[in-house]
Amino acid sequence: MTSPAADVRPEPVHLVIMGVSGSGKTTLARILQTRLGWPYAEADEFHPQANIDKMTAGTPLTDEDRWPWLAAMRDWLTEQARAGRSTIVTCSALRRTYRDVLREAEGRVRFVHLTAAPDVIAPRLDHRAGHFMPPSLLPSQFATLEPLADGEDGAVVVVDVPPEEVADRALAALGIASGPTPDAAEGGARG
């Protein structure tokens, strides 16, 4: 007979890789997905076409544009948590109010805030191909950015080293060991 305690699964953890465009969110998320084996989704996948059209035209999004996008991500995180899966999701999550929406998801939501000076980020955007976010919107992102505050579950990681080292820093700061977890076998990419 199995004891009730043996049937308890650990609470799923959702790592939200946050920061301005060009900070390395996708690169870090892919490395962490490889190391941890957790399902991974890009915030861009949750944008309605109207948001993509605005950003492509160089128009910053308003809060009204962002609420449905954030709610869709929150709902995906909850869906994964109900299936017992920890996840990784990239999201600018520039304001605390945006992060508050994501924190409503079931499971433990933790943030990894990737940071660097604008003069480090801007050249990355200039050399990035195939993305709808134009470099001209970077100043508005820095103006909107509210860094993680005391009491927010997460870590700030400076992206001044190669991506694998950024991943090492992030995992160490969060106290997460590399290597697939039991729920990884049940996961997969969003789709």
UniProtKB/TrEMBL annotation:
Membrane recorded as keyword: no
Molecular function terms from GO: ATP binding; gluconokinase activity
Pfam family, one: AAA_33
Reaction catalysed by this enzyme: D-gluconate + ATP = 6-phospho-D-gluconate + ADP + H(+)
Cellular component, GO, one term: cytoplasm
SUPFAM superfamilies noted in UniProt: P-loop containing nucleoside triphosphate hydrolases
Pathway, per record: Carbohydrate acid metabolism
Claim: RNA-binding is one of the keywords in the record: no
Enzyme Commission code(s) on record: 2.7.1.12
Cited Gene3D superfamilies: P-loop containing nucleotide triphosphate hydrolases
Superkingdom, natural source: Bacteria
Keywords of this entry: ATP-binding, Gluconate utilization, Kinase, Nucleotide-binding, Transferase
GO BP annotations, alphabetical order: D-gluconate metabolic process
Enzyme class, broadest EC rank: transferase
Protein family membership: Belongs to the gluconokinase GntK/GntV family.
PANTHER family, alphabetized: GLUCONOKINASE-RELATED
Protein name: Gluconokinase
